[in-house]
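Self-study notes.
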Amino acid sequence: MKKSILLGAAALAAVTFAGAAADAGEVKIGGYYMFRLINADSNVVKEDASSVGVANGADDMDLWSHRLQLNLDMKASEKSHAHARIRVIDSQAVSGADTGSRTGLLGEDNHGNGTGAGGVNGNDALDWDVKQLWLETEAWGVGVKVGEMPVSLNDNILVNHDTTSFGTIMLSKSFGDITVVGAVVKVSEENISGMSAFNAGGVDLNNDGDTADAGEVAAVAADKGAGKDDVDLYALSLLGKGMGINYQATLAYLKAQSDSNVANALTTNANDGLSDWWLALTLNSTVAGIDLTGTLIYEAGMSNVPNLAAGNAVTKQFEEGDFLVALRAKGKTGFGGWNAYAFYAGEDFTNISNTTPMWSETWDTGGPFARDLMNNVFGNGTAVSTTQASGNNGMSSPSENVWGVGAGLTINAGGWTIRPMLDYAAVVETDLDPTVAGPESLIDSAWGGSLVLSTNIQQDTVLSLTAQYVKPDFTTAGNTAVTGHCAAGATGNCDDSMHQLMADIKMTF
């Protein structure tokens, strides 16, 4: 979405240290293998035989897919250990008689189908991906974590690492029931050299009426380049418990240097860096048997973003401050349990990480080749027509310019666990720039849900059956864009619902 240039699908992560998993001097290898059959329609246009473009007649996808993840836990002592999370195969299609040639596990396959020399199809990009790699130790009574690690802040809402990570140096110190955590996160180490990257769009950097002369570039080159191309996040978090309430308070500050991609994209002044800060509070307690977690986040608004006029609604969203409030609840019943959530993210709220805060499985499904249906509606990456690059025209994400509610049950019956879930979400403001006719957002709201059935078929081996459905409601702009995707002469709206059917076997080892 609009703010994905900050952390995108990113990671910060769990401020609690992972426990040592092996004896001193030993390495423990664990993980899981998961096989999945899937049928899905994961975008919001009808792609029947009457549609136009490359999607003609290809509304659903049917495939087999699998994933192998290895977890390495390496222990030198009780206080010094390192960890790695490696995807050997991730969302690879299962096909072919010769597995070794089909997947090309160690690089190029024998047919030039990878991303290396001679590769064309990108199969190798799915293999041997180190997702996380970090070291934990203690120095003079201070906990130390370094590397590319998982970090979650404020109920996975301010930052949600998912299975990705960012380079972090993290220090922690406990004082009784209170723990203070400080972190420096290298969001982006870009190594941009000189002015060529910044001035590719022909900006008059020194206001001399010329956008490409050597004198102009030389005038500012000394202030640019690889020394000023970083994007860094600084976070200070306080965790503790008092009067039966668990709490986390976080102050986070983002600095994008003047020659970073973030600054180059959002400011026309070559010497301007950008900055933003967030203040977040999360409280958790049990009231009358109900586990409640509430989060409030305030975002101040990004500095040095030019307040441009008509047609710059996204720029305005970056510049203005706003807030997010969320509440999760769960409890037990005689047959299992229940859970619910509600959240509101203001129209100008910019989150650090716009990956889903895991509101429900309808938002974030997980597993090989899964499609996150509610994310696809409100987040980045869903093509709703041949001319639109993002699900909601870049105007929302799962935690920005959206409000939502959902509720679900957990039912234990005859060795099976049954989990139904209902979800609804809507855009807070679809018309962000009143100086331009019509709304900028393509989608106004969506409703849907999930039904997951799972059972143990052997020790640490689970069979799961999943059905999901999401129906979006389009704005006038959305209807126009989607109609343009359909066959010439089509009348009315041709927007489409989304679904996902999956059967999984997962073995954890």
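Second protein, same conventions, sequence then structure:
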Amino acid sequence: MDVQAESQKIQQIIDQYAVMGGGDPERFRALFWIDDPNLTNVENDRPYLLGPEYVEFLADLVRKEGGGGPVGQRFYDTKIYFLTPDVAYSVSLRDELNIAKTSRVTFVCQKKHGEWRIIHGHFSYVPE
């Protein structure tokens, strides 16, 4: 496995997430394994586990913004770690510029059919 090449592919997923698929809801949806029953998300301000419906909710926000997509986030200090050749996780900091908060973001990515996508996302506010 070429760790650098695979890391770049995962970094591209994170970069596309940061710009909400460039304002394209289908591109945003394609960052996730939507049909996988194991797809989960944990958000900063929600005490319950979110599934594919949350990704659909975000894609709908992108759709309603008319291609611009929600803005105001910046990912940085990303580190990518491989658990197996087909499972990796990333840890990033994300500035949420519209509410002046920083989150730690972890994505678990899975490679299927030669393609990396997100299978789990976890967002936690950094304590002030």
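Instructor comment on the second fold: The first strand starts at residue 40 and ends at 42.
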